[in-house]
Design brief:
It is a single chain. This protein is an alpha/beta fold and 316 residues long. The chain has one domain: Metal-dependent hydrolases (TIM Barrel). It starts with a helix and ends with a helix. One of its GO terms (biological process) is secondary metabolic process. Keywords: Lyase, Signal. This is Amidohydrolase-related domain-containing protein.
């Protein structure tokens, strides 16, 4: 029987995992500086992870059985590593409620993102529901917006009301960019998904139609380096996060990509993210990648870990 994208992720493995070098988990220093993780995912509390959760990089098996277990484990990792704020969006089921559950558990640490796709598998959330959550202080971000998985660019008209809402409420949009897990287009959820819609060049029309939009290019647009740089150069309201690529890519490949962005002058526009998905231990792996990058100065590390996100999310 053909495995779907979600089963592939839960089981671990795949092209990125085969390319990456296994490495041990890193213990957190006693005095870790504060970190903001702008790219986290939540799952419904009752959701059962039927397959063993195996980290695709380390091979470590997790005892996590449910979405509730996942929430507890992720918050424990965040506290251990001094991740003082985290932007979380739902990754399955009732995506909004999954993210709100995190907020309800630790409101001082969590910023809620509304997962948005716009496909038969994942329809768009009602605008009024988003307004209501924002008024209650339980919505701070629109995203992860996964238009690529729906086979659409951000400029597709169905997203205009959501981008307008983001401008009106002065909240940022976090957009999935770059590539997707192998086999995604063969999964029933995402038959119209295409790699080309992950290219950051597809955000340009939306940015010009919505000039007050603050946009985060998730995954730093990998592997579209030159197009990512072009958008960062032209649009000062565009930032990027390191989610997934900072622990799933082989260390040399990630270092080369991040160094190119920093060397090009975008060190104050890059934010730390993990995209930990099913694996709470990925948070520590991602932290280690930034801490051990030999080309970063301490000031650049602080910008990536904390300062840039404070500015972008207006955390004061």
């Amino acid at each position: 029987m053909q495995s779907g994208r979600r089963d592939f992720l839960k089981l671990g493995g795949g092209t990125l995992a085969m390319l990456a070098l296994p490495q041990p988990l890193m213990a957190a220093p006693a005095a870790n500086p504060p970190i903001i993780d702008v790219h986290l995912h939540a799952y419904p509390a009752s959701m059962r992870f039927e397959n063993p959760i195996v980290n695709p990089i380390t091979g470590a098996k997790s005892p996590i059985k449910t979405g509730a277990d996942h929430l507890t484990a992720c918050l424990a990792e965040m506290k251990r590593l001094n991740v003082v704020r985290g932007v979380v969006s739902g990754g399955d089921g009732d995506r909004l409620q999954a993210a709100v559950d995190w907020y309800d558990r630790d409101a001082g640490r969590i910023l809620v993102g509304a997962g948005i796709r716009g496909s038969a598998d994942t329809p768009l959330p009602p605008l009024e529901e988003l307004r209501k959550l924002h008024a209650q202080g339980k919505l701070q971000v629109l995203g992860e917006l996964t238009s690529q998985y729906a086979g659409l660019p951000l400029s597709d008209p169905q997203y205009d009301p959501y981008l307008s809402l983001a401008e009106e409420l002065d909240i940022p949009v976090a957009l999935h960019t770059g590539t997707m897990p192998e086999g995604t287009t063969f999964d029933p959820c995402c038959r119209t998904a295409r790699a080309r819609f992950g290219n950051p060049e597809y955000v340009e029309e939306a940015l010009n139609k919505h000039p007050k939009l603050r946009l985060n290019l998730m995954h730093c647009g990998w592997p579209y380096l030159e197009d990512t740089m072009a958008m960062l150069m032209l649009y000062p309201n565009v930032y990027a996060d390191t989610g997934a690529i900072d622990w799933l890519l082989p260390r040399p490949a990630f270092n080369d990509y991040l160094k190119a962005l920093v060397d090009a002058g975008f060190g104050k526009r890059i934010m730390f993210g993990t995209d930990q998905m099913y694996w709470p231990d990925a948070i520590g792996l991602a932290v280690d990648r930034i801490k051990s990058a030999p080309f970063l100065t301490e000031d650049q590390r602080r910008d990536i870990f904390y300062n840039n996100a404070v500015r972008f999310y207006k955390l004061g």
